[in-house]
Write a structure and sequence with these properties.
The structure is a single chain. By secondary structure, the protein is an alpha/beta fold. Helices cover 42% and strands 13% of the residues. The chain has a single domain (8-198, 228-280), classed as Rossmann fold, CATH 3.40.50.720. It has helices spanning 17-28, 40-53, 69-82, 109-130, 163-185, 205-208, 212-222, 228-240, 267-280; strands spanning 8-12, 32-37, 58-63, 88-91, 135-140, 191-197, 250-253, 256-257. Strands 3-2-1-4-5-6-7-8 form an eight-stranded mixed sheet, with helices on both faces. The longest helix has 23 residues, at 163-185. It is globular.
Length: 302
């Protein structure tokens, strides 16, 4: 049964893994799907694969390198020029890198892609989300957030870099953004926010950014994981399930709202992260990545 007819859904990181499977579920449910991927060729291939499995699908893809804030803004502008509203936004795109790499904006790559791209894209698309009768924003986080902390004095982790710690920090930041966005939107908002733990999934994320040793460890761990399709079912459920409407700013796993780390819900820390993220997304910033001073953009505190 088509449950998302006349709805428009945007999913990032859609050329493979959880993102692709989530987009496919939406397409099969009757939604208009906008996929986002970095490589134009892989975008075209993913769109063709969705149409094979869902022949009546209304699907299009946008190519964008989400590590670039200019590209994120351009993507949001293109969608804003074309769409009247957006019903669902799934911030799924993510990466892991063992060694420290900086984006074109001079930001540590995992922070740039896993957190700031989602933060900025969501902020830029809020007018379209607000235009929907009831919209949902799903942030794909991770259980790795439990052992993580945001290094506010050094978010780019220039000192003593650890790829795993940087990944955990980025996924904690994703969750904190979902919590803080819900607070800033307020109880009367028509936009709900969710953070979801996709569980251990048999994808290539742990292989792409590591050395031979890391890839072997990931392969061993991934054997005990679930498929991307199984994970996507939980992600898509948060976008589709009527009973969770209004249950905003929560952390979900296996279709249940579950407790998250105390750091992820600390009000002062969430506000501080929002201000830092806003500052790091200012187009003219010098990218010093030190401290957390700066102004909060886009919302006033609720």
């Amino acid at each position: 049964m088509n449950t998302m007819t006349r709805m428009t859904c945007l999913v990032t990181g859609t050329t493979s893994g959880i993102g692709f499977e989530t987009a496919l579920i939406f397409a099969r449910s009757g939604a208009r799907v906008i996929g986002v991927g970095r490589d134009p060729g892989r975008c075209a291939d993913a769109a063709a694969r969705i149409r094979v499995e869902a022949p009546d699908a209304d699907v299009c893809f946008e190519a964008a390198d989400l590590s670039s804030q200019a590209a994120v803004r351009a993507l949001a502008a293109r969608i804003g020029d074309r769409e009247a509203r957006l019903d669902v936004l799934v911030n799924n795109a993510g990466l892991f890198t063992l060694r420290r790499v900086e984006s074109v904006d001079g930001i540590e790559m995992q922070l740039a892609v896993n957190h700031l791209a989602a933060f900025l894209l969501t902020r830029e698309l809020l007018p379209l989300l607000a235009a929907a009768p009831r919209a949902r924003v799903v942030f794909v986080s991770s259980g790795s957030h439990f052992n993580a902390r945001v290094r506010f004095h050094d978010p780019g982790r220039r000192l003593l870099y650890s790829g795993l710690a940087a990944y955990g920090q980025s996924k904690l930041a994703v969750l904190m953004t979902a919590v803080e966005l819900a607070r800033r939107l307020g109880p009367g908002s028509t936009i709900d926010t969710f953070a979801v733990d996709p569980a251990l999934v048999r994808t290539d994320i742990g292989r792409k950014g590591g050395n031979v040793f890391v890839r072997r460890i990931w392969d061993l761990r991934a054997r005990g994981g679930i498929s991307a399709r199984e994970s996507a079912e939980s992600v898509a459920w948060l976008a589709m399930e009527p009973s969770v409407a209004g249950v905003t700013g929560r952390y979900w796993k296996e279709r249940r709202a579950v407790p998250s780390s105390h750091r992820s819900t600390d009000p002062a820390a969430c506000r501080r992260l929002w201000e830092l993220s806003s500052r790091l997304c200012e187009p003219t910033i010098g990218r010093t990545l030190s401290g957390c001073a700066g102004r909060s953009e886009g919302f006033t505190a609720a």
